[in-house]
Amino acid sequence: MAVIGEFIRKAIDVYGFITSEPDPAKAQLTVLQNLLDKAKLTAFGKKYRFSEILNSADCIDAFQQAVPVHDYDKMYDDWWHYLLEGHQNVTWPGGQQYFALSSGTTSNSKSIPVTDDMLDTIRKSGMQQVMSLKNFDLPADFFEKQIMMLGSSVSLIEKDDHQEGEISGISAANIPAWFRAFYKPGVEIASITNWDEKVRKIAQEAPGWDIGSLSGIPSWVEMMLKEVISYNRLNTIHDIWPNLQVYTTGGVAFEPYRKSFEKLLARPLTYIDTYLTSEGYLATQKRPDTSSLALILDNGIFFEFVPFSDANLDEDGRVKPDAEVLTLEKAEENTEYVLLISTVSGAWRYMIGDTVMLTDKPRSEIKITGRTKHFLNVVGEQLSVFQMNQAMQKMQNRFDIEIKEFVVAAIRKNGEYINKWFIGSNRTIDDQAFAALLDSELCDANKNYKVARSKSLKGVEAEVIPVEKFYRWSEEYKKLGGQTKIPRVMKEDDFLEFEQYVSGLS
After folding, report:
1. Residue ranges in 281-430 assigned as alpha helix (H)
2. What are the beta bridge partners of residue 48?
3. Closest CA relative to residue 185, chosen from 151, 157, 156
4. Could you report how far apart the first and last alpha carbons of the chain are, in Å?
5. Domain shared by 391 and 368, yes or no
6. What is d(CA 327, CA 342) in angstroms, rounded to the nearest whole number?
7. No. of H helices and E strands in the chain?
8. Do 281 and 422 have their domain in common?
9. If DSSP codes are grouped into helix, strand and coil, which group holds residue 119?
10. Helices in 232-351 by DSSP H: which ranges?
């Protein structure tokens, strides 16, 4: 009998029984008050009079009236660059030990502060995720198995007074001592910066591990599994890790990868989605009967919601100064919002770059629908990444293919705009037939797109290419592995450079 595993499972059940979900409005007000109180003597807190906000009759309204919305560029230019220069007490008390180098898709170079308080919240949010496993009916021996966390290198970049790396690497470098016995691939392999070398080492060591769960971005986890299977001459990953039961995904939508991912398995896994960003651990899936994520409301992050509309965003995807901004209490289900966060890392009314939709307000559950800068609206298409992902799932079924990556742009052809798509798939098909059906699906799903097609959007083209070309581009122009994500929407000049690159690959 798995005595330790049974003990852990019972402890989780007891903890879940004696704790309850917080009241959303009360939890968020408390978080904001704590944030303001702790930061009131920082340079930021003094400028925006946090002490006065705390003493006001309506703390949230006063906060929203006093503090402007920030995107990364504004936060960095006005405040965070001082942290990199060694200053303290800028937007959060104390100095700065870590900076997360963003591997997102909206900027090539973000340095985001990660405070000790933020590391504490990430650990606490991770425990909330563990406690929610009681809802997934896992056997006791699962809790004795090892956990493969495929993230960025834990070998951080040493600067004068701080260290830099991706958030997954910083988090892994700070895992509790008790967890290291469960953690794979271990610090030594996780410190390898070269992706191919790291994955080959994992494949070599894999027979000696008893992996019960995986975590990481789908595209890179899939590539790792393929290498382990190929190197060890297996049929499926369960031939070497028979106790593998859970995959914790995040970073991008998993559904486009499910079909190809499950070909590597002898049986489906329990899939659990998470929302961990360079700015914090925002949400986690707590129930097996939904793919939505529950916002973590009582752990150092205050959430705000901006209705995703032309009235509230400028042409660069930034929130306008006079935009409507709602608290969670006032936000509505099935409406797309730009997410703002204020955090224990000293981000204030910070536009994280994601769009979300509340799917279950009583449970504070959301779906991530896209990126504010990955919203295609050059000639009125108004296509979100959420709609693109839904269309790609239909394309997979109609053409019996696997679509793992895609990118689109509005480009000029013969003086008029068309939408050009590159589709990363496992086999080639008729590009014109694909483009015609994709166009039809998007017209059915989005009335604005349909109107654009009758006016300013004069055509749709698609080119289906081997998905490896996307990864080779990522390796050369971004970097391969870890938490790196492929953009879904590009500006015309970037897209034409991408097109030239992939066209030159054999």
Report:
1. 385-399
2. none
3. 151
4. 55
5. no
6. 12
7. 18, 19
8. no
9. helix
10. 255-262
Give the three-state DSSP class for 188.
Answer: helix
CATH number, domain with residue 293:
3.40.50.12780
The answer to the question of residue 27 being in a domain is yes
Contact 383, 449 (CB under 8 A): yes
Are 249 and 310 in a shared domain? yes
What contacts 38, CB < 8 A, 6 or more positions away? 92, 93, 344
The answer to whether residues 461 and 438 touch, using CB atoms and an 8 Å cutoff, is no
Q: What is the DSSP letter of 348?
A: -
Q: Which two tokens stand for residue 98?
A: 């870590």
Within 8 A by CB and 6+ apart from 331, the residues are 305, 337, 358, 361
Mean pLDDT, 10 residues at a time, the chain of 506 residues: 45 51 91 97 97 96 97 94 92 89 58 91 84 83 89 76 81 76 87 88 96 89 94 97 92 79 93 90 91 93 92 82 94 94 97 92 91 74 82 91 90 91 90 94 88 88 92 74 71 91 84
Same structural domain, 396 and 320: no
Backbone angles phi, psi at 232, to 5 degrees: -95, 10
Strand order in the sheet with 457-466: 403-413, 416-425, 457-466
Are 403 and 288 in a shared domain?
no
pLDDT value, residue 88: 93
- Domain closes at, from 331, 351, 372: 372
CA 231 – CA 369 distance, rounded (Å): 37
pTM: 0.77
Structural domain includes residue 444: yes
Other C-beta atoms closer than 10 Å to the C-beta of 470 total 21
Residue recorded with tokens 């405070």: 115
SS3 370: strand
Q: How many domains does the structure of the chain reveal?
A: 2
* Percentages (nearest 5) of helix, strand, coil residues in the chain: 40, 25, 35
Q: Are residues 367 and 393 in the same domain?
A: no
Question: Checking phi first, is residue 211 left (phi over 0); if not, alpha (psi -120 to 50) or beta?
Answer: beta
Q: What is the DSSP string of 199-249?
A: HHHHHHHGGG--EEEEES-HHHHHHHHHHHHHHTT-SSGGGT-TT--EEEE
Range of the domain at 390: 385-503
Do residues 52 and 200 both lie within one domain? yes
Give the domain-ending residue among 340, 372, 404: 372
